[in-house]
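thread: overnight batch results

M.L. [08:02]
morning all. the overnight job finished for the chain we discussed friday. pasting input first so we're all looking at the same thing
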Amino acid sequence: MKKRPSIGVALSGGMGYTQAHIGVLRTLVEAGVSIDYVAGTSGGAIIGAFYAAGLSFDDMVAAASRMRWRNLTRFDFSLMGLFSSLEIQRQIENIIGSCRFEELMVPFAAVATELLSGTKYVFRTGSVPFAVRASCNIAHIYTPIRYNDMLLIDGAYTEKLPVETVRGMGAEVVIGVDVTYRSQRIEQPRNMIQINAMLLSLLAEQNARLSRQRADVMVYPSMRSHSAVELGRLEENIRAGEQAANEALDKIDSIVHHYSRFILKKRWNSLKKAFKEAFS
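M.L. [08:03]
and the structure it wrote out:
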């Protein structure tokens, strides 16, 4: 008999800030929180794919430490973008292999955006590295990806915090992790990447606001000392994720226990009804 609710974790986008997701996930697992579903957007899809593929947290840290912008871009000389995001896919393949969603240890979804219709596109089947690449495909920086008559760009344009996506996978309790809500540092942009990061953040905040309201518990790592485009602050970001997750553990425990009592009560009422009907 089912004794606890299924738990899903929604990992937001946020460029370098998404390294904090490693600290959040590690803290949840060490605290005994069973994660049944994971959904990720943009950088959150990278960390989500690592977790779903069964990487140890040490391996996740090692993999994240090797990711730099020079390893994630390749000049494309296209009218639709300056760089190809193919290097992102290759990096992910080097870490978890050319695995498919059906082979993952934990059910996982990656969120992208279909440019022509302006709608969310959720990957649940096919190549995981390709899906992660599509989820991270920032417009203006990367060339849109042609896929099944669609043009795919970064998922943050439509669902930066994939709460509804992970709930749609079957999660009864959703833990949302938004790495930019308490971290966004406003400063003068110095290059095209920073300008586009700011534009994406402005657009994504509009859909993230509603997603935060729909989560059962929110985790907010705080990293105000540096910009989201910096990828060299791994240890600091992970510590921020651990601290934020620790602060949320009591609320998570309370909600899970409350839902568990609801499940047991519902099951007991069903048994009583069946017993009554059988002997009436």
